[in-house]
Amino acid sequence: MDRLSATDAGFYYAETENAPLHVGSVAVFEGPAPSYGDLVRLLLSKLPLVPRYRQRVREVPFNLGRPLWVDDPHFQILYHVRHTAVPKPGGEEQLRNLAGRVLGQRLDMAKPLWEVWLVEGLEDDRWAIISKVHHCMVDGIAGTDLMQVMFDLDPNAEHKAPRDWSPQRSPSGVEMVAGALTETVTAPLRQLVHGPEAVSNGARGLFNSAKVAVSSVPQLARQALTPMARTLTGPIGPHRRWAWADAEFEDLRTARSALGGTVNDVVLTAITRGFRDLLKGRGALGGDTVVRTMVPISVRKEGERGSLDNRVTAVFVDLPVGEADPRARLAAIKQQMDEYKRTMQAVDARSIIGMGDYVAPTLLALGVRAAMQTGQVWCQAVTTNVPGPRVPLYVLGKRMVSAHPYVPIAGGTRISIGIFSYLNSMTFGINADFDAFPDVDVLSEGICRGIAELVGLAAERQPAAATP
């Protein structure tokens, strides 16, 4: 039986009416658009590479075990691949509005947890694909790998004809309960018998994490006393606003080279400017205010790329929105990220994540749901950076020109920012609660201003060209 990992099960249980937990993207392509039938046939030919796309989640009775992935005997690809259009000539605003509505809708949890929408009618004879995949299926890094299922590196790539498929028999309720009880007893024993080194690593990881936790107490105490932007958290409604921003990767590298830090530090500093402008417009900006953002970090090893489960942990970064000097903002973010890097080196995060496999499934379900209902009090935003391909991608011979990511919101955290790099560009997809963020465009425009000001500071540090 193919059982959800503890992390994946957590994402599955956290799904609520007002907090759909799928990730997604909007990719724009050069035209003309393919036919709906051609896209369906392409996906049918690729599905054998990702069997999960024909499987649905089935819960074990009484939550005696984590849910299972089982083949959907009623799988129908025409349900999962949709066709729509915007009025010609559709610009960015029309596409964003459509994408916001599509991405804001829940997936049907009784079916395989994905959708693909073909969008026609864009200006300049372009078209788009809106994709949705539930977070319990895939994290951001693996999601980038999944692009290989649908995308080609060669515009003239040939595709195999779709093959017939027959679903495997789904286990009965009795079989699921028996399997769950058996695994609860035997999994720790198998770990002890066949994986003494893994047990040792896990114990060492727990010991190291305890040391790190003790050393982190002063930092956590500082964060607990730091005034945060409370207007960014609260109840989440069923509707979403979605905005995006674009940047040139070369600009970010220029700022990094001249001002120090990493590209990710520069990106977080630009986002800080966006939140600063947002809070200033609301009259909620104080000199020592911060926006605390959760930054997911992949702990996936190189050999695990392409696996479809979640291998993530997270750190919390205080964005110094109250600081007027962009140099000081960058320095503060760099210091925090450097500290987290040292911490992550001291802790075997994979071992800690793996300990969730031994949590009683009923407690796991209740705990995750309770956390989502209680609301997030420790951070105000989610910011996740997913590196994409630096080479052109194609679908049915058409070149992808841009892609913007979609990251879900939940648990009282009412805004998220997904970051995606492709070729020489970096894009920002901003997902926000509809009622809480009528000013979401101030944030997206502020991110662009933040990048521009860092590039300007970098130019000031460059030596002047010699005069002849």
From TrEMBL:
Pfam families in the cross-refs: WS_DGAT_C (PF06974), WS_DGAT_cat (PF03007)
Start and end residues of each O-acyltransferase WSD1 C-terminal domain: 310-452
Domain O-acyltransferase WSD1-like N-terminal: 4-267
Gene Ontology molecular function: any one: acyltransferase activity
Family annotation (InterPro entries): Acyl_transf_WS/DGAT, CAT-like_dom_sf, O-acyltransferase_WSD1-like, O-acyltransferase_WSD1_C, O-acyltransferase_WSD1_N
Record's keyword annotation contains Acyltransferase: yes
Keyword Oxidoreductase: no
EC identifiers of the protein: 2.3.1.20
Known pathway: Glycerolipid metabolism; triacylglycerol biosynthesis; Lipid metabolism
Key words, A-Z: Acyltransferase, Glycerol metabolism, Lipid biosynthesis, Lipid metabolism, Transferase
Catalytic activity: an acyl-CoA + a 1,2-diacyl-sn-glycerol = a triacyl-sn-glycerol + CoA
Name of this protein: Diacylglycerol O-acyltransferase
Provenance organism: Geodermatophilus arenarius
Lineage: Bacteria, Bacillati, Actinomycetota, Actinomycetes, Geodermatophilales
